[in-house]
C-alpha cells in the first residue's frame, strides 16, 4: 500500500505578536523533505510588511530581532502569499497533499498561516493535509518526558541537532527539519543517532 503521506513541509513563522487575528505574520520559511527524508527545495519569504492594519508588539520584535524599519521596507505580503501557494502546490504528489511539520505549530504557526492566506484570498487546506500535522514539540513530549522544557533549542540539543542563530525563520526551520528527521527515524525504528532511543512505534510508518 502506498503511503498517503509523500512530502512533509517543515516550516516556521515570525510574527508581530501572539494573536493571529490582530498581529501579522512577517516571515515564513519552509524546509521540506520527502517520505525518504531527503531534502527538497527550500522557500524563504524574507521580512514582509504588515498587512490589514495589524498590530506590532515590542515583545515580538525583541524575540525575533526584526526591526520596525525592516518591516516598513518589507516584501509585499500578497506576493508572498501567492508564491507560497504555488510552492505548496508543487509539494503535492498525485492526490497526496503535503503534511505540515514544525515546533508548536498546531497552536501557533498554523493559525497564523491560515489567517495570512485567508486575508490574501487563499484557503490553506486546498494545498496541505488538513487532517494531520507533525508537531515536534508534542512528539518530543512523548519521547522525552523528563526534559526541563520543550523549547526548540532544548529538543534540538537532546537530539544532537545544531541550532544556530535561533528565532529567525530559516535558521529555526533548518534545525527543526533535522529534528523531524531524527524523530521520524525514531518512529520507524531505524535511527542512526548515537543517543539511546526511548520511544518506538513500529506500526507507525510514513
Structural overview:
- With 206 residues, the protein is an alpha/beta fold.
- The protein has one domain (7-188): Nucleotidyltransferase, domain 5 (2-Layer Sandwich), CATH 3.30.420.10.
- 37% of the residues lie in helices and 14% in strands.
- It has helices at 58-64, 68-72, 77-90, 105-119, 136-143, 152-159, 169-188; strands spanning 7-15, 25-34, 43-44, 99-102, 133-135.
- Strands 3-2-1-4-5 form a five-stranded mixed sheet, sandwiched between helices.
- Helix 4 links the parallel strand 4 and strand 5 (133-135).
- Helix 6 (152-159) crosses helix 7 (169-188).
- It is globular, with a radius of gyration of 17 Å.
- The model is unreliable at 191-206 (pLDDT under 50).
Q: What is this structure, in a nutshell?
A:
Helices cover 37% and strands 14% of the residues. With 206 residues, it is α/β, with parallel strands linked by helices. A 5-stranded mixed β-sheet has the order 3-2-1-4-5, with helices on both faces.
Amino acid at each position: 500500500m502506498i503511503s498517503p503521506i509523500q512530502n512533509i513541509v517543515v516550516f516556521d513563522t515570525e510574527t508581530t505578536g501572539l494573536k493571529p487575528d490582530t498581529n501579522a505574520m512577517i516571515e515564513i520559511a519552509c524546509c521540506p523533505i520527502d517520505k525518504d527524508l531527503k531534502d527538497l527545495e527550500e522557500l524563504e519569504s524574507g521580512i514582509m510588511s504588515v498587512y490589514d492594519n495589524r498590530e506590532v508588539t515590542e515583545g515580538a520584535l525583541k524575540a525575533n530581532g526584526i526591526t520596525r524599519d525592516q518591516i516598513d521596507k518589507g516584501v509585499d505580503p500578497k506576493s508572498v502569499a501567492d508564491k507560497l501557494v504555488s510552492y505548496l502546490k508543487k509539494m503535492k504528489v498525485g492526490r497526496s497533499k503535503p503534511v505540515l511539520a514544525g515546533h508548536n505549530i498546531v497552536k501557533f504557526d498554523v493559525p497564523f498561516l491560515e489567517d495570512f492566506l485567508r486575508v490574501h484570498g487563499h484557503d490553506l487546506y486546498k494545498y496541505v493535509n488538513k487532517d494531520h500535522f507533525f508537531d515536534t514539540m508534542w512528539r518530543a513530549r512523548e519521547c522525552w518526558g523528563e526534559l526541563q522544557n520543550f523549547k526548540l533549542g532544548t529538543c534540538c540539543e537532546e537530539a544532537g541537532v545544531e541550532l544556530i542563530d535561533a528565532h529567525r525563520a530559516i535558521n529555526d526551520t533548518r534545525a527543526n527539519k533535522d529534528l523531524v528527521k531524527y524523530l521520524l527515524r525514531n518512529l520507524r525504528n531505524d535511527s542512526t543517532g548515537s543517543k539511546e532511543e526511548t520511544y518506538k512505534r513500529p506500526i507507525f510508518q510514513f
